[in-house]
Design brief:
Layout: H1 3-16, E1 40-42, E2 49-50, E3 55-62, E4 66-69, E5 72-85, E6 91-95, E7 106-112, E8 118-121, E9 123-132, E10 135-138, E11 142-144, E12 149-153, E13 166-169, E14 180-186, E15 190-198, E16 203-211, E17 214-220, E18 228-235, E19 240-247
Parallel strand pairs: 2-12
Antiparallel strand pairs: 1-3, 3-7, 4-5, 5-9, 6-7, 8-12, 9-10, 9-11, 13-14, 14-17, 15-16, 15-18, 18-19
Length: 249
């Protein structure tokens, strides 16, 4: 199995959770596209969290279709999670399927209230099922404990995306009724775009600001939107970050 495919399988597995809970999320099929590397996860990096502050993140997954064992490319039929350890205390995962199949978009709802700070290295085991000469064969367990991390910070710390030139500040009111603030920090003058999509993938709002070095804010009222869940993206010319926004009644 190639290192890139192995890493993607590992990242996919941490979102699969345990048990048979099914989330109410919707996959983002508008901004999340398969780049054939293989597979895709959006957002590529998990937002950091605050101690004691509600955390809610929807992740879209497009599973890979191929794996390489001993130099031989094989078709992946499905992926199943075996074990997951070292999740941030207070954070849980719910998925909209307990088995992940190629050529299908899945979403995972990450939620909870972090009860401890630090860097959490997720240790997981994932089992792929591959097609060998027309027979579905369970592949060997794949274990990794260093590739995926979640950072939980003290309240008042700006959430970073681990890029030095573009930082996004968590929106202050979510759910919101009258307005919410979505911020970013840049190191040079550059355009930053905010897009809001409904859960059918329809663009319902768009705004561009000429961000200046330091903190910049979108003040979004959502006056024309009905109460419900929406997906928003914040992007500059290099990075796109995706999160969920809830308008309350």
């Amino acid at each position: 199995m190639t290192r890139k495919t192995l890493l993607l399988l590992i990242i996919i597995s941490i979102f699969a959770g345990t048990g048979n809970a099914y989330s109410q999320c919707m996959p983002d099929t508008i901004t999340c596209k398969d780049t054939l590397e293989p597979g895709q996860i959006c957002p590529a990096l998990l937002p950091d969290g605050y101690l004691g502050k509600a955390y809610n993140q929807t992740v879209t997954i497009l599973p890979p279709s191929l794996a390489v064992f001993s130099g031989i490319p094989l078709i992946i039929v499905k992926i199943r999670v075996d074990t997951i350890v070292n999740l941030p205390p207070g954070i849980t995962y719910e998925m909209n399927a307990d088995e992940l199949y190629p050529d299908t978009a899945y979403c995972i709802l990450l939620s909870g209230i972090p009860s401890d700070t630090g860097e959490f290295k997720i240790a997981i085991t994932v089992i792929p099922y591959v097609d060998i000469l027309g027979s579905i064969v369970e592949g060997p367990p794949v274990v990794n404990d260093t590739s995926v991390k979640i950072y939980i910070h003290e309240q008042g710390t700006m959430i970073k995306t681990h890029f030095t030139e573009f930082l996004v500040i968590v929106n202050g009111k979510n759910p919101f009724t009258e307005f919410t603030m979505i911020g970013c920090m840049v190191d040079q003058v550059s355009p930053v775009k905010l897009n809001i999509y409904n859960y059918m993938g329809v663009l319902v709002y768009s705004e561009i600001l000429e961000a200046k070095p330091g903190r910049n804010w979108f003040r979004f009222t959502g006056g024309e939107l009905r109460p419900g869940c929406y997906i928003y993206t914040v992007c500059n010319n290099k990075i796109i970050l995706v999160d969920k926004l809830i308008k309350a009644r």
